[in-house]
Amino acid sequence: MFLPLDRRTRRNRPPADAATRESRRRHHPDLSKLRGWKSMQAEAGIPGDEWDKERRWALRMGLTGADSIEDKSIPTFARGELPHYAGINTFLKAPYTEDVTEVGNYDATVLGAPFDGGTTYRPGTRFGPQGIRKISALYTPYNYELAVDLREQMSLCDAGDIFTIPGNIEKTFDQISRACAHVFSTGSMPIILGGDHSIGFPTVRGIAECTSKTIGIVHFDRHADIQEKDLDERMHTTPWFHATNLPNVPAKNLVQVGIGGWQVPREAVAVARERETNIITMSDVEKMGIDRTAEMALEMAWDGADMVYLSFDIDCIDCGFVPGTGWPEPGGFLPREALGLVSRIAAEGICGMEIVEVSPPYDTSDITALMATRVIVDALGSMVAAGKLGAHGGLIDKPVEFPMGDYDAARDGARWTTSARKG
Ligand SMILES: [Mn+2]
């Protein structure tokens, strides 16, 4: 038994009287009240069937391992989750749905929007999807604190990247809207890996055209991103101007969290004021705390809305944690705060999400891409824990269907893509 140490003499203090003992009791809390204990017990109740299935599949795909390998679940060729450093990466090593008509078989679909033509300072976000997928291999699908195992409790696929058109913002927007509309129409929740923030307009447009219902947006950023044009085009400073022009995406349901610093243009503020969007600055968050901020954001985003979309600009986090981004700005969220907020927003259910502005060429040790991965898995984990994944499915009342490509029919058209060649 340990007696409390007297701080001055460093010797054990004599036993305290009953009243003092009572007041000290809180220093020895009931362990069973801790998340650590609860999660430890909860793990026993999570099934392992999908993991068994994956290992069975890995052996069938990758040959049995060498005779000297004692663990007979290890194949010769790396297949599936293990080892984390090996393999051809999709997001979280989820199955690659090369045939995009198959995404409807999964609860959620990751799709890349590799585009940085809307960038107004540092480029490089065209490599965002690759960077995020690469470091996502670090994760297991299980989260101890949430007591959630994504592999067992939901299904996820990676549809690869959208064919964007470098140097042409509008054609890229059309491609992105089409891709998002396709995924959303199948009922699978789209998770879009940007790309710069200009993609926020076409992603929301793609989703909005599949439903007559109203969509709210929770937008994490240091920047307001709501001016009409920047440098004469619809750059990454403009998505919410155009998104909130859509008939079923009202500006009053746009909640912008973490805004502040010296990079918010006055043009954007004027639009936010005219349209009466909801801006919660970083200092507002500091004053209110995470719980109240989340409560307020949810209330405003869901006010009269049928579903909520999450747009997460990685630069909302203090740039000391996310160097790999286009417009770094100090004074933003700590990672723990941002993740806490995302989890609370996602716990009420989201109909889709995007994570933008990750620029691997400016990243250090993959930390920015890692942060982006966390935002996604934390949102998914939170939705799974709250039983909200797929809740938006019943609201898709105008699903769209696009024809599959036909090589011969396309060849009859006027133009045909040539392979990229220098000179
Ligand atoms: Mn930003």
Automatic annotation (TrEMBL):
Q: Which GO terms describe its molecular function?
A: agmatinase activity; metal ion binding
GO biological process terms, alphabetically, are: putrescine biosynthetic process from arginine, via agmatine
Q: Name one Pfam family in it.
A: Arginase
Which of UniProt's keywords are assigned here? Hydrolase, Metal-binding
Q: Which portions of the sequence form the region Disordered?
A: 1-39
Keyword match Nuclease = no
UniProt cross-references to SUPFAM superfamilies, sorted A to Z: Arginase/deacetylase (SSF52768)
Q: Which family does it belong to?
A: Belongs to the arginase family.
Please give the PANTHER family that the UniProt record associates with this protein.
Answer: ARGINASE/AGMATINASE, GUANIDINO ACID HYDROLASE, MITOCHONDRIAL
Name it.
Answer: Agmatinase
Protein's organism: Minwuia thermotolerans
